[in-house]
Prior knowledge:
Layout: H1 10-13, H2 40-51, E1 59-62, H3 69-81, E2 89-93, E3 103-107, H4 111-133, H5 137-167, E4 170-175, E5 178-185, E6 188-189, H6 192-197, H7 200-257, H8 262-277, H9 279-285, E7 319-322, E8 332-335, H10 340-344, E9 346-347, E10 350-352, E11 355-357, E12 363-364, H11 367-371, E13 375-379, H12 380-385, H13 389-399, E14 401-402, H14 407-410, E15 424-425, E16 429-434, H15 436-445, H16 447-452, E17 455-458, E18 462-464, H17 467-484, H18 491-505, E19 510-512, H19 515-531, H20 539-553, H21 555-565, E20 576-577, E21 580-588, E22 593-605, E23 610-613, H22 614-617, H23 623-640, E24 649-654, H24 667-679, E25 683-684, E26 687-689, E27 692-693, E28 699-700, H25 705-719, E29 726-730, H26 741-748, E30 753-757, H27 760-768, H28 786-820
Parallel strand pairs: 1-16, 1-17, 8-13, 13-16, 21-26, 23-24, 26-29, 29-30
Antiparallel strand pairs: 2-3, 2-7, 4-5, 5-6, 9-12, 10-11, 14-15, 18-19, 20-25, 21-22, 22-24, 27-28
Helix pairs in contact: 2-3, 4-7, 5-7, 7-8, 17-18, 18-20, 19-20, 24-27, 24-28
Amino acid sequence: MGANKYRLTEExxxxxxxxxxxxxxHTGKLDVLxxxxxxxxxxRAISFGxxxxxxxxxxxxxxxxxxxxxxxxxxxxxxxxxxxKVPDDWCYVYNFSDPDYxxxxxxxxxxxxxxxxxxxxxIDRFRTIIPKVxxxxxxxxxxxxxxxxxxxxxxxxLSQLEARANKKALxxxxxxxxxxxxxxxxxxxxxPEELEQLDDQEKKKVKENQQHLQQELxxxxxxxxxxxxxxxxxxxxxxxxxxxxxVEQTFxxxxxSYGENKPVANYLTAVEENLLENIAQLKKDFGQDQDSESIPxxxxxxxxxxxxxxxxxxxxxxxxxxxxxxxxxxxxxxEENPTLDNLIGRIEHQAQMxxxxxxxQMIKAGALHQANxxxxxxxxxxxxxxxxxxxxxxxALKNKRIKIENPSRSQGVIxxxxxxxxxxxxxxxxxxxxxxxxxxxxYSLDDDFQEIFKVKADFARDMIRNQETAxxxxxxxxxICAEQDLKHFTxxxxxxxxxxSSRMVSQQxxxxxxxxxxxxxxxxxxYWAEQNGKKLVDAEQVDYAxxxxxxxxxxxxxxxQRMIEESTILITTTGAKIGQINGISYLxxxxxxxxxxxxxxxxxxxxxxxxxxxxxxxKLGGKIHNKGVMILTGYLxxxxxxxxxxxxxxxxxxxxxxxxxxxxxxxxAELYALLSSxxxxxxxxxxxxxGSVNQNGQVQAIxxxxxxxxxxxxxxxIRGLSGSQGVIIPRSNVKxxxxxxxxxxxxxxxxxxxxxxxxxxxGISLLTGKEAGVRQSNGKFPAGTVNRAVVDxxxxxxxxxxxxxxETRDNQQDEEQxxxx
Length: 821
C-alpha cells in the first residue's frame, strides 16, 4: 500500500563523514587549537562582560556540564589579564593606637614583599644593635653619672634631716616599712620600757619632736620622689637618645625608600615612635634591665605592670596579605571551595593558657583578596551550598570592599579575642559558572542577583556541523592528544569521532559542544589503540572504544532483551493483532540510555467513559503522558464525530508496566491501537511505533529516537530479522538519526526498515495495509478505508448508547405508570 514512499533510504539514516575531506595523514600534523569553537554567543558575552567597566556587570556563565565553560572563560581571562596592570600588594600592620583594629597598607606590586623583607631585616638588625647599646662603656658611664647625681642629692637631704634629729635626741632608722624616727640616749634607741620611765614632760617633748621631724621627713620623701622621677626621665632620655642614635640611620633609609607612599611612611614613623617609647620593654626582652636599687624606688622607674608581647619587636612585622610580585598581569583566580573563610579571608586563633588569642599577623587572605584587581571564577552550586558565602559575596560586590569578620560575632557567639581589620577596597570581576536552573532561580528569587550579575553567557550544547567545524574538531583532537600525550588520530578516526559527536546530540547536522565527553572518548580510543598495538587511532579503534564503553554499561538492557527472548516480557514481532501495537520506551540510567519495546493494547466498547488511560487510573502515568492520552479524545471528536455524539468507552494500557510512565512519545502508538480496536483492522506486529500526536492528527517529534530504534532492532535481531520488520518514526525526527552501524547496515540490505510519517493517516495505512481514507465532498470517508470503519463503529456505538438510553427512559416511564395505576 505504498509503504516504500515512507521508507527511509540508507543515505537518510546515516550521518557519515567522508574521511577524504581531511588532507592530513594524522592529527599530529595539525596546529593546536588556539580558539574556542562552537560558542560564538557565549564568547561575545564574555568579551562584553570583560570589557565593560560599569558597576554590576559581573557575569554568569550557564550551560550543560562539559561544554567548556570554565576552560573557555579562563582562556579569555588569562589572555585579557596578561595585558592588564598587575594590581597592588596589600598588607596588614599593627595599629599602635588601637591594636584591635589592624591597619591595611597598599603598595605597588612587589613592594609589599620588599617592605616585609626590609622590616624583617630591620628587626634582625635591632636585635643585634639594641643589646649592644646598653653594653657600651659610654652608656653605662653616663647612666652611672645620672644615678650618682641624684643619689648624692637624696643623701644630702637625708643627712640634713638626720643632723636635725640628732640635735633633738632622735635618730632615723630604716625598717622594712620605711624610715622611722625613734628617740635615743647616748646614741642608742630607747627601749619601750626606758621610754615609759620618762616623766610626762619629757614624753611630751619627745612626741612633739617626733611629729615635727616626721613632717620634715614626709617633705623630704616627696622631694626624693621628685628626684627619682627626674632620674628616671633623664635615664629614659639617655636610653632614647642612645637608641635613636643607633637606629635613626635605619629608619632614615626606610623612609627614603618608601617616602612616595604616605601611609607607609606614616607607619614607619609610628614604628620609630613606638620603639623609642617602649625602650624599657626592649631592655627587658633582651635581658638588659639594669635598673639600680641604689636609688630608693628606682625599681619602679619602669612600669612593669604594662603588658607586652614576649618580643616587642614582633609587632613591627608586616603581614603580607596579598603578594603580587610574581604576577604578569591581572590575577585570574578559580576558587574551588568557596567557604566564607576561603572567600573573604579569616582571622586565625591560637590557644594559650586555656584562652584563644589572635593578632594582626593571623589575618589570612581569601579569594577576593587574591583576585582583587583581576578576575574571580566560582562554581555557582558550590558557592550557594556554603553557609554565608553568597550573602558575603554580594555584600562585598555591592559595597566594593572586603571586610573580614569573625563569624561568631554575627552569630551571637562570644569569642575570647577578636579583631576588626580595616576593610580593603575591592575591584574585581566575578564569573559565576553554573546551569540554567540555578540562573533562573536566582534571577527570580534574588533581587540583588539581577543588579550584580547583568551579563549572561549562554553556552550552547551543540554547534553546526560543516566542513569548517569538522576541521576545527580535528584541531581540537590534535590539541588534546598533544596536551595529554595521547596517540594521534587518522582521518578515519577523526571522521568516526565526529559521527559519534553528532549522535551525542542526536542531530545529523550538528556536533556536541560537551567536549568533556569527547575528551573521554579520545582518551579511551587512545588506550585501546595502545592495547591493540596500533600507532595511530583509526575508525576501528574508536568503534572498539565505543563497544567497550557500551559493554561496561548495558547490563540492564541485556537483561531486558533476555526477558523478551524468553517471553517473560511479551513482545510480538510477527503477524497482526487488533488493538495491539509495539511501542518503545526510552530509559536513561545516567551514563547509559536504551530503548525498551513495550506492548500497548486497547479495548473499546459501548459506554460514555471516553478514552481511559489505565496508567492514569492506577497513578502510574505522569502528567505529560496523561495529557497525550487526553489528546486522543480530542482527535476522535474532531476527526470523526462531526454529526453525532462521541459515545464510547476505551481502555488503553502499557502491558507489563509496573513503574511510572511519562512523556507523550507513545501517544501516536496509543492512537493507532485505538483506531485498530474501533475499525477492526489488525496492526502489524513486526513494526514498532514512536511519536507524539496532536489533535489534528499530525505526528510530532520525540526524543531518544536512535535508542528507541536500536532497542526494537535488537529484539528483532534476537528473534531473527525477517526483512519486514522496522520502526515508524515522525518525519521531523529524520534529521536526528545517528544510528549504530549494525542498524544502518540492516537498513541498507533491506533486513530492517525505518518509516517516517507526518500524519496519523500515513501511519495507520502502514500498520494496517489499508488506505486511511480522505473525507469526500459528501462528508464521508470512502468505503473500505480505516477512517470509514472507525466512523461506522463510533456511529454504531453512539446509536447503541442512544437506544439504550431511550429504552431505559421507556422502562422508567412504564414503571412509574404501573406505580401510579
